[in-house]
Amino acid sequence: MKSPQELAEAVVQKMYDNDPFSKWLGIQVSDVEPHRAVCSMTVREEMLNGFGVTHGGVAYSLADSAFAFASNTVGVVSVSIDNSISYPAPVRAGDELKATAELRTSANRIATYDVNVVNQEDSVVALFRGTVYRTKKEHFPDNN
Question: What is the value of pTM for the model shown?
Fold first, then answer.
């Protein structure tokens, strides 16, 4: 039987191995614990919009990946049912972004996670909140 930490790491590795979009963005998972994940990426030139700043979908995608990994660390397939994001500061090509997703509330089959995205200067560039529905399906049904 896996410990909670081993289960969290195994789930995230399984998810990442099957996540071509996160890989394409260059997202790396640097830290995983039950109910928590930290992901990072470097913003590339082709991620800029017509204003010369990073398209909002880039920070959103990084936050969403961290949210997905964190919310599934307990071993139960958890799917997003609602989320929102705000962008308090611009992101530019070459910026190193880090998203930290952590559990805020959990009741029955619903859980809410907050994700803070910061740049290399530790300035907050995006604030994301997501809600998941925890299904009855386990990532590793034979973990008992």
Answer: 0.96
Identify the structural domains of the chain with CATH numbers, from first to last: 4-137 (3.10.129.10)
- At position 109, the amino acid (one-letter code) is R
Tell me the CA distances in angstroms from 12 to 32, 74, 88, 113, one per residue in order.
8, 10, 29, 16
First-to-last alpha carbon distance for the chain, in angstroms, is: 6
E-only strand ranges, the chain? 28-33, 36-42, 76-86, 96-107, 110-118, 124-138
Q: Please give the helix or strand (H or E) that residue 39 lies within, else none.
A: strand 36-42
Q: Which residues pair with 4 in a beta bridge?
A: none
Average pLDDT value over all residues in the chain: 97
